Protein 1
Amino acid sequence: MKKTLLVIEDQSEIRQLLRMTLEDEGLEIFECADAATGEILARECRPDAIVLDVMMPGPFDGLELCRRLKADLTLSGIKVLMVSARGHRNDVLIGRQAGADEYLIKPFSPARLAAQLHLWFDEPPPLQPDIAV
């Protein structure tokens, strides 16, 4: 069965790169550019995992969305991989406290992100070059 991924990222270039990288790996990708739309999509499509940016426009950010997802018993089992340009140890800690299962600092390698998803999905990752975005 095809695994589903929701990408919530305001930078369209990053969404496009992740889509191109991860669709080749057999994932079904849903995407949006803000946390409010991401919350709606998460409830509708019930993805296996979410790639979630921290800083986005809108009424709330990725940290708040992560807290909301993890507080909802019907959504709390979804793995959340948080991505952010904020890379200080305290930022990572705040992301983890919000409920992120993993935290990658931008620029990050799409291959590293794909490898983490494969770990969660119990699948061996295909070999890919390690290029940061």
Protein 2
Amino acid sequence: MQSSFNTDRVLASPGAVTSPFARALFDQSIALFLGGEPEAARMILHEVVKATVGFELLAELTNRSCANLRSMLSSKGRPGMDNLSSIFRILRDWLHVRVDVQVLDAA
């Protein structure tokens, strides 16, 4: 499903944060989600949103309320795959990164 938000607007935002620290936190949140630690992942993702795009703009871009997004990204939140995918996509574009996932043999 294609969302209706304007990626160009996000990328052109004067508040766009591309710091290595924000990128590392974003990377860590994705790794934690995929590694089966959703509570820690949501808490880190909450901080990444707060420090980058912000909940107000994220609410506008996802057609969700700020309160709903904050709840989704709380330790007990339940964001759902569609919402999580949208949040990841917005942050990916905001941070000017590409997300690659690699599956490796278990040690």
Protein 3
Amino acid sequence: MRGRTAMLLGRRVSKDVMERYAADQELAAAYRDKLAAATAAEDELRRARAEGAARPGEELRALAVALDRALTEALRAAEAAERVAMGPKVYVPQDAKDPAKARREAEIARRKAKARPSVKPWTEEVNRLRTAREAHRLSYRVGPRVAA
């Protein structure tokens, strides 16, 4: 079997799946740091908003954009941790003979994995971060200003 190199718990896994799985493990390991960065960015933005008129609008805009980026990075890390908790079956191999079947098998594996107790905390964390990011985007408009 060309392209098949690693075995995980008795199941052959293609090299590209193992590479993506390893990349997700690396990203998931940085989750706490990224969450701490998002918390620090949120604290700084709240402090700046409390000061009100003492801060120029461009500085508030920069802080709001920094918070959005930090939340996005934390969300990416949480999603990677969720995929790692689900296992390599949820990845679609690039070299699959029948891509539609492989995609469907990965989709089924993902739904089954989401029901496991070890994955549920990560799913809830992903939903919490996604909600926080969307609430931030809706409450802090950072688009170009319109002259009145």
